[in-house]
Amino acid sequence: MPLLALAPTPTVGEAQAEAQVPRAVLWIGGAYLVCIPVCSAAGAACWLCWGDRSFPGCLRRDPWRVTPVLMIGAYMAVLSLLIVYTHLFLPRAPRAVLKRLANVGGAWVMVVLTWPFAFAFALRLAWLAIAVDCVLLALLAAVIALWVRLARTYGSSD
Fold it and tell me: 58, 75, 128, 152: which has the highest count of C-beta atoms within 10 A?
């Protein structure tokens, strides 16, 4: 039987109890929070190909033009899923984990990766777009590994 780590105070569950947020609100908010990056990325991808006659024509001619946008959407969706999962199923996790996920995982990573993508799109550099995609794939794998680690450390002992 593995030992479960005790979280330093305050925990996610304590913060939710203090805020008195109903669990149904967390579920509804979580469903919308995950949809926002996916819909935003799909809309941005369509907007980037707006000048072409058709969206499939844009993808056939220059497939690396929109992949960083779609990968950013996938990364943010998985990060949002982790945040929602922590709120709903990991009440013993430290509240600092949620703050770091939002600040570092969401804000800082996207600020750093937006510049190379902007250069890749403006200068039509396929190699830079592919490099941004590879970095985002590595970040996706890191977020999933962090998710597994948090679930094993702060999950229920059932």
Answer: 75
